[in-house]
Amino acid sequence: MRVAVVGSGLAGFTAYQALRRVLEPEEIAVFGTDDDPAAAFRRHAAAIRQRAMRSESDGHCLPATFPGLAFRASVARRSPAPLVGTAFDRFHPTVGEFLAHVERLRSRSGWERSLVRSRIERVRAVEGGFELDAAGVFPHVLVATGHPGLHVPEELRGDSRVVHSYEPHDYASSVTVVGAGLAAATEWLNALAAGSEVVSVRRREPVRQPLNVPREYFSRRGLAGFHRLGHAERAARLRTLLAPSYPPGRAFDEPLATAAREDRFRIAEQVNGTEQVICATGFRRGFEHDPLLARLVDEHGLETAEGWIVLAPDSTVPALTDETRTLSLAGVAAQWAFPAADTLTGARYVAHGLLDRIKACRTR
Asked: Model pTM?
């Protein structure tokens, strides 16, 4: 085999679809513990009762941006409305449509033929490529291990009232939601719809924007400017870009305004005496929380900056990548190269960078 993908989640799955353009399933080994690449997303979406994707038409796992899910939705619904919506960045596929899309790709792409049900704990640079535990040596490796666990603020750990938003839960009669991103905003509405009184605890006023990061950072021009930044400035920019946010619009504003008038929704600076505390605080941040990445950095002396592994613009690890071998990072670990790397568009960006390296590699 020529290529190994470490991680069988959506980032690895999206990369796999790009790799299949030039490689057969037998040339790719995908190491992971879940047969279903959408397993983690499925659990998290169900926990917060998510109905629609934040991503737009290009938020899919196919190698090319077009045709995206809007085209398929137009065909299925026999209506041009999804295509018209995507022209104005207003089409958002349902969670069901996205999961059906993943299942179709899974069944036809050869995914099961490439999947190795094993958790890789160590990636070590050796002559001829990278050694993955006892699985062998591969000249090209993509590490797509996903988010390193759910984040609960230290001061709330051990509080019996606490549940993370991405864990299964119902709603008490009085609920505090900690956080200010899309999961938090979704939980405000969920709890209000369940009849709860809701307190929003946040460190800062939420950013209101359609996507995870400003749209310019999905473009070549925006990325070029980002890649020119020095380490300190880039880390500071990432902290700003990755601040919690949720989309603007009446879908959130009207229910919250109504609930505030009814004294059922208010903002507070700290957790109080409500019956339930929901931490909509996302995931742990920083490579050091991922054992495989932390070991990779430690054993190879890789350059880091404030919790990020320093990467080339194509998301490869410069010290371990040359004309004979490639080590790429995907998902949240690739934000140094692509700020929205933990989106499907980001996964596709990383996949194409890896594919270009493989095509150019003299050992392929």
From this structure: 0.93
